[in-house]
Amino acid sequence: MITTRANLTRKIVSAIHKDSKDCNLHILGCGNLLSFSLLAVAGAMMCDGLEWCRTFAAENFHLHHFQHKDIFADPGLYVGNPLVEAVIKEVQDDYATAVAVRNLLSFQFFTRHLHSLLAKKKVHEFVSENFGGVAEVALSESLGTEMKIYSPLRDLTKREVVQLAHEKGISSYYSCHSGTKKPCGKCIACLEYK
Q1: Long-range contacts of 91-96 (CB under 8 A, 24+ apart)
Q2: pLDDT one-digit tens code per residue, 77-86
Q3: Residue 48: beta bridge partners?
Q4: In this model, does residue 25 exceed pLDDT 60?
């Protein structure tokens, strides 16, 4: 079904852009992050739905039952952002509001990240890594072209990747969710190096 919608999206966007490059497609009823990824690749500029207030988005962008917030840690991408930390602290006693706020922040981060990958033409790697190989097939169908994604490091731990980097003579690297020049040392990605 999603590949059919993605192919239709590609055709609609193509028809829209024949008349106007400034007009974009906004799809309602599609707040699932994997669907959004596939439809964005197909040309949709925006997608939204009610998933942000009906489910819980884990750090890997997978959606879970609304009541599962307590069994997941807050994403490291919030660490060091005083405004986000203040908002989350303010709503922590109201479960429904806390889930909605956290989801909106996660969806916002996801969307920014997705658009940057679209610009770099690297969405296929992101979809495969976050949603699996079957999603790769759906992405190929959404694009209307066959593609194969190779991610030889996918099954390695961060420690094994660092060891491999040393073996290959790579010494200047780090992974941090804060996006700063120096690792924050607090987020999940930084903590996995220890």
Answers
A1: 95/69
A2: 666 677 777 8
A3: 28
A4: yes
